[in-house]
Write a structure and sequence with these properties.
Chain lengths: 345, 113
């Protein structure tokens, strides 16, 4: 009853719904649809079956039906499915007082089947199309291998979903205990992203990966938010201002998060002036997109506990920011406190 | 006031994939066309009104977990922006009316800060 091994999707690698771990609903719908294609009939079918042979007398079939409280039997000869016999067929035989007749005389020979290697979406459409409640399953050699009902499909999807859910839980649990499980004098998790100059289409991508990583590590949502604002501004600065792009790096330790943005030019002539609200060197084109408000470094400073900007014109810039996590490790969330950066400007 | 009611009352066009908008209740709103200000000012669950329509508003909205973006004055996001919004679960709504009017109506509907 286990779903077959398969390559995880982008969504599964990067968390539910591709962005945060909050929007479960839409994702679950997609996941069920996805599972209808991923799961095969053989994964959810019932394998052990009561069958009849073509020469079995109907009285014997009736006995099997009665003892097992079922309403029909598949008729098999040399492992091949040759027909189906239902209670209705037995009633017909009873009317003619032919209960001693062989099954082959009353069985229906034209049986709708589904293949064990078909995805369950095929079974679902056959159920709907033929208005049937159960289908015999045959393998590639046309041998009867099982039976599938709508209930089997529902159960199969639920089991697979539960497995997904557990995997996600385990993944989150492991991540949030990372710093407790690994013993060293100093454990640091380093996330590193290369940011291309002028690539606005990727703007905020590294920041969203960082957000997801921090939440998965169990970081406090407020600290995550401060971190996100700071790294987003740094990321956009590399895209907007750097000559050849740069590196965005995040170092997570139990007591602090360090962020750095490094580029190789053009360099900043006055590293004090850039902290003045409203000061910007952004081009008109970039401003039209809503950047260049002159609030980037102001926002960063507001969100972090420590900020240091070093720059040499012609060589490059290096911005280092730190957020300290008081009396706790990443992985234990702090309750009731807000350290939302002030937003009045 | 849920997002479906807001969409109906303000006659907004939904640009992204349809969702169960009635299950989303915006907690407030924020308006700016400057992305740095939005990064600092918009909160989780807010409605963001702006006349910016380019790709980068999606990243800002996703990072801030805003409930939806209302793009005003018929500014039209391109296909890439809409695709990215769908991928990241960001709701894009559109109106021909200016930001000021939309904000006024949102306030009247009880969407306060």
């Amino acid at each position: 009853m286990c779903p077959p091994a398969r390559t995880p999707t982008e969504q599964e690698i990067h968390g539910r719904q591709g962005r945060t771990i909050t929007d479960h609903d839409a994702h679950e719908i997609n996941r069920v649809e996805e599972l209808s294609y991923d799961l095969k009939v053989r994964d959810v079918m019932t394998a052990a079956l009561k069958t009849a042979s073509p020469d079995m007398p109907l009285s014997r079939v009736l006995e099997i039906l009665r003892l097992n409280r079922i309403s029909g039997l598949l008729v098999v000869e040399n492992e091949q499915l040759v027909g189906v016999l239902s209670l209705e067929d037995i009633v017909r035989a009873l009317q003619k007082n032919e209960l001693t007749a062989p099954t082959s005389r009353y069985m229906t020979r034209d049986v709708v089947t589904v293949a064990s290697y078909d995805s369950i979406v095929k079974a679902i459409s056959t159920f709907t199309e033929k208005q049937l409640g159960r289908l015999p399953v045959i393998d590639e050699n046309h041998n009867l291998v099982g039976m599938i009902t709508k209930g089997d499909i529902t159960r199969g999807i639920l089991v697979a979903l539960q497995k997904d859910y557990k995997t996600e839980e385990v993944r989150r649990y492991r991540a949030s205990h990372l710093f407790e499980d690994i013993i060293s004098e100093r454990t640091t998790l380093v996330l590193r992203y290369t940011i291309k100059a002028g690539d606005f289409t990727q703007g905020g991508k590294a920041s969203s990966y960082i957000k997801r990583a921090l939440l998965r590590l169990g970081a406090d949502p407020q600290i995550t938010r401060r971190c996100c604002i700071a790294v987003y501004e740094a990321e956009m600065n590399l895209i907007i201002h750097s000559t050849n792009g740069g590196i965005l790096k995040l170092e997570v330790e139990p007591h602090r998060i360090s962020m750095s943005a490094t580029d190789e030019g053009p360099g900043i002539p006055d590293t004090e002036q850039v902290f003045e609200p409203g000061y910007s060197t952004a081009t008109e084109q970039v401003r039209e997109m809503g950047f260049g408000a002159g609030m980037g470094l102001v926002n960063m400073k507001r969100c972090v506990d420590e900020i240091k900007l070093e720059s040499t014109v012609g060589k490059g810039s290096r911005l280092v920011m730190r957020i300290f996590i008081p009396n706790q490790t990443v992985g234990v969330s702090r309750d009731g406190q807000t350290d939302e950066p002030s937003t009045d400007h | 006031m849920n997002l479906q009611q807001i969409i109906d009352q303000l006659n907004l066009t939904v640009l992204t994939e349809s969702r169960d908008f009635a299950s989303i209740t915006p907690t407030g709103g924020y308006s700016s066309d400057l992305l740095s200000c939005v990064m600092a000012g918009a909160k989780r669950g807010h409605i963001w009104t702006t006349l910016q329509a380019h790709l980068n508003i999606v990243a800002v909205a996703a990072l801030n977990d805003v409930a939806a973006i209302i793009i005003t004055e018929s500014a039209q996001p391109d296909v890439a922006a809409i695709a990215k919004a769908n991928q990241q679960g960001v709701i894009l709504l559109s109106t021909p009316r200016p930001t000021y009017e939309i904000n006024g109506e949102l306030w009247q509907l009880g969407i306060h800060k």
